[in-house]
Specification:
Layout (H helix, E strand, L loop, with lengths): L1 H21 L16 E8 L8 E9 L2 E7 L10 E4 L4 E4 L1 E7 L10 H12 L2 E6 L4 H9 L6 E9 L1 H5 L3 E4 L5 E4 L1 H7 L5 E2 L6 H10 L4 E6 L3 H13 L4 E4 L7 H6 L4 E3 L11 H10 L2 H8 L8 H13 L2 E3 L2 H14 L6 H22 L3 E2 L5 E2 L10 H10 L5 H7 L2 H7 L1 H6 L11 E4 L13 E6 L2 E3 L1 H6 L5
Helix pairs in contact: 6-7, 10-13, 12-13, 14-15
The structure holds zinc ion.
Zinc ion binds next to strand 6.
């Protein structure tokens, strides 16, 4: 029926054109197609990320890259002339947000082709937005702006204290086996990253201004910042309308001190081990570089329930501070060491193994206490794809190990992740509601039944444009 009526309208159109072209009648007014035709995605199961129950037989209208309407068939009227996309029996969910990635590693080759491949692969997994938690905002955003087959990319500006720039405690091994010591900031800069130095005597508003001009959406406090520095930087960023996130702890400032300084979010569950040290111990550990050894000693499944840690988590819950556990990155590191089967584990291996169980237990406590979770994976854009932490891996851990429901895990990668990003993204991303960007994922299987069904991506839409995983992964979509 559909095809015969299409043929009929084609004949009618042709007839009209022929008549006017021959001058056999009055010129027909040409009806210009609407500048932004509506796309109606019909008959899907809609999980819109707002927290409401899924809607069956739903209609979702998209126009000019935005959601116009999303709801039950009777709620959204399909305008005449709309293009219809039938998604019978499939699941429509908001585009996923990975709120913790690192995309630019100049020395590892992720500046050009590898970056483009990584971004296409992320999009193919249904990830339509990422937040780079610190590389080089300008360098990264310039490269990403030249690409179309990419998630939306937001970038944070790294900030660290004096010792990060001038203390030479990080051992670097050259290809000839020589070990030399250099400040961590120098190692970071050699990757093409651009950390900013802040000392308590500096003007925090100037640091924020440099970050803003670099294209950053907020600050990521990285290391060697005392409580006063955290407070001044956070206040300055908030004056400029920018969020502040930081490592838990940020050495020597503790996680609790960061929360009390009104920081917006903390990353890395294993970092809560910092609460188990006194202020003096925290300061000394940073100075002598024994941080990993000391953390491996104190971070146990039992110590995750220490009252000092619970106090920090309760404070986060009370203030709405976001928490990004980054569990998949630790799991990947453990898998790496398992494969190596070293007879004598390195300090790094001991740290990673301790951090794994401790981090999961901390995350369980955080969820129990009502801390808002944002799903960030600590994904990096180089190395074998299978060894990179992924949002999918993070969500599986949140369900399988932390015991979140698939719905709660999905909220941490949609609605709540958008809130975690803050600013404009919080109003435009994360849910399928009128006015939001048309960032959508169509799945053939129900992700609320099994989070692993996130692998059943049929297509991904970013800003109204549809991409199919095969198209993105095959190289057909080159840019
Ligand atoms: Zn990171």
């Amino acid at each position: 029926m559909k095809s015969s009526s299409s043929v009929l309208s084609a004949v009618l159109l042709l007839g009209t054109w022929t008549l006017s072209a021959c001058g056999g009648g009055p010129p027909q007014p040409r009806v210009a197609p609407p500048p932004h035709p509506t796309l109606a995605i019909i008959r899907t199961n809609l999980w819109d990320g707002t927290g409401r129950a899924p809607v069956s037989n739903a209609v979702t209208l998209v126009r000019a890259g935005r959601i116009v309407c999303a709801g039950a068939a009777g709620e959204c009227r399909i305008p005449p002339g709309a293009r219809i996309l039938d998604g019978q029996g499939r699941w429509l969910i908001p585009g996923l947000i990975d709120s913790h990635v690192h995309l630019l590693f100049l020395t590892h080759g992720s500046a050009g082709q590898e970056l483009s491949l990584d971004l296409r692969n992320l999009l193919a997994q249904g990830v339509t937005t990422v937040r780079d938690m610190g590389t080089s905002p300008t360098g990264l955003l310039t490269r990403v702006n030249a690409l179309t087959a990419s998630p939306r990319v937001y970038a944070m500006q790294l900030v660290a204290g004096r010792r990060f720039f001038f203390n030479g405690f990080q051992g670097i091994r050259t290809s000839r086996g020589t070990v030399y010591r250099q400040p961590p900031a120098m190692a970071m800069q050699s990757l093409g990253w651009t950390p900013l130095l802040y000392t308590p005597n500096d003007n925090a508003d100037s640091v924020v201004e440099v970050a803003r001009k670099a294209g950053a959406m907020g600050l990521k406090l990285y290391a060697q910042l005392d409580t006063e520095s955290v407070r001044k930087l956070t206040e300055a960023a908030h004056r400029a309308g920018m969020p502040v996130w930081g490592h838990a702890w940020v050495q020597p400032a503790s996680a609790l001190e960061q929360v009390l300084a009104t920081q917006d979010g903390l990353v890395h569950a294993a970092g809560l081990a910092g609460e188990l040290f006194s202020h003096e111990e925290r300061d000394t550990l940073v100075n002598d570089g024994k941080l990993q050894v000391a953390t491996a000693e104190v971070a146990t499944v039992g110590s995750a329930h220490d009252p000092r840690i619970l106090a920090a988590l309760d404070s986060m819950a009370a203030r709405g501070t976001f928490f990004e556990p980054t569990l998949d990155a630790t799991r990947q590191s453990v898998a790496y060491y398992n494969a190596k089967r070293r007879h004598i584990p390195s300090d790094q291996e001991n740290y990673v193994r301790a951090a794994s169980g401790f981090g999961i237990e901390i995350t369980r406590e955080a969820v129990k206490r009502g801390v808002r979770i944002s799903a960030g994976s600590d994904h990096v854009a180089y190395g074998p794809a299978i060894e990179r932490a992924s949002l999918f891996g993070e969500l599986r851990l949140l369900v399988d190990s932390v015991a979140l429901t698939p719905q709660a895990a999905l909220l941490a990668a949609t609605r709540d992740a958008a809130q975690a990003l803050g600013g404009e993204p919080a109003k435009r991303l994360g849910t399928i509601e009128p006015g939001r960007y048309a960032d959508l994922v169509m799945l053939s299987k129900n992700p609320l039944e099994d989070i692993a069904n996130l692998e059943s991506v049929e297509w991904v839409m970013k800003g109204g444009r549809i991409w199919r995983p095969g198209q993105l992964r095959s190289g057909i979509a080159m840019r």
